[in-house]
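User: Hi! Is it possible to get a structure for several chains at once, not just one? Here's what I have:
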Amino acid sequence: MKNEAPQQHDGSDGAGGYSSFRIRNSGPLEGTVRIQGAKNSVLKLMAATLLAEGTFRIDNVPDITDVYTMGELLSSMGLTVTHGAGTVDIVCPAECSTVAPYEIVGRIRASIVVLGPLLARFGEATVALPGGDNFGSRPIDMHLRGLEAMGAEFETEHGDVIGRVDNLVGADILLDFPSVGATENLMMAAVRAKGITVIDNVAREPEISDLAEMLNKMGAKISGAGTSTLTIEGVDSLHAVDHTVVSDRLESATYMAALASAHGEIRLDGARAHHMEMLLAKLRSMGMTITPDDEGITAVVPGRLTSVDVSTLPYPGIATDYKPLIVAMLTLSEGVGIVTENLYAGRFAYVSELTRMGASVRIDGHHAVVKGSEQLSGARVKAHDIRAGACLMVAALSAEGETIISDAHHIDRGYTNFVGKLQGIGVDIERVEVDRRR
Ligand code: EPU
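Assistant: Yes, the chains can be modeled jointly so their relative placement is included. Here is the combined structure:
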């Protein structure tokens, strides 16, 4: 299939418009979920194909809207993008457009990562300033400062960032904060820069290591992925490769949070426990039994869990993206838990939706104080972003009655076959079209 809108497995057209999920009290859960390739890796791997002429194949690709949007972006630049079952084939020609237009970038913030590859290969890039999720402004100053250190010059015009450079040159760069996107952009620029680039205080996420692994297969010379310092020796040319996307730790966490709410025993095939150690330690201290092996994770929750305190931190700390799931689990656990957000200013929009379901959550600055209840009550609620949507699903599983989560398109951005996978472990869920005027 050439780059077209996703076909959802639950029969909808996937456009999302007015789709909602209807969820009824479910559990105990039982069965196996196959974990998808990571959204936050595959989008960057797709951008990396801009770095070399040739035919790439990416495997273990999630069937999510963001992948199709990234495909649309690359197609608009002249690449040929063909989606298959769990694969995407990308042919990058000798010449490409170097413009990433707002109509597409506005739908997917991750598209900012085309900036580094475009400057590295073509010496120019015009990229609309990104949009993304509904959780506050997310600047790109660190991306630009790092690229400037390598010789690029930028101006901003009509909402676009326009970058130019004759030849990128290696530089020593210290990031103010281990930004995932800045690390990826700078790494993809440095692989074709003249000389050696050392980037300190970089992000250490498994998705960064996945990108470094693909770039090294393409002929790059990157060392230090997974540590705080990347050393990159620039090379003159790179070549196309095949690559398999790393497992999605956020999808694994989502099904574990569902289990915390509805209880039971599930198997997560393909989950990687060593990519989520801190979260697993917290879940164990709440009372979940977690048994990892080489092929995945088995998790058991016999009854109500106990509350804990959690702070979000850059990897290997507890990811900010887990936080809505953790808050949802705490609304049902025994006791009071305090969740502290250290990455994004305003990422608590889903709390007012949980409150509509009867949850007791008090926001105090960047802390959420969550008092567990025996049971929430089903309600009409809205998904403000991908993880907020998943958090409401978790709360809905053990709520009394029925919950309708609107704005399903946010969830479709990040979860393959959300309805089918949940139904497969015993969740009473369906996609419905709801008239929001009522
Ligand atoms: N930041 C700056 N300046 C920059 C770059 C970042 O101030 O130049 C700030 C941001 O405003 C934010 C923090 O640094 O407060 C973290 O931003 P980071 O660059 O690390 O995040 P990102 O690359 O934009 C990725 C994930 C997010 C995830 C964050 C943090 C993708 C596509 N997105 O975003 O995932 O929340 O890292 O881990 O990889 C999601 O999957 O739902 C999602 C939003």
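The mean pLDDT is 93. The chain has 14 helices and 24 strands.

User: Great, thank you!
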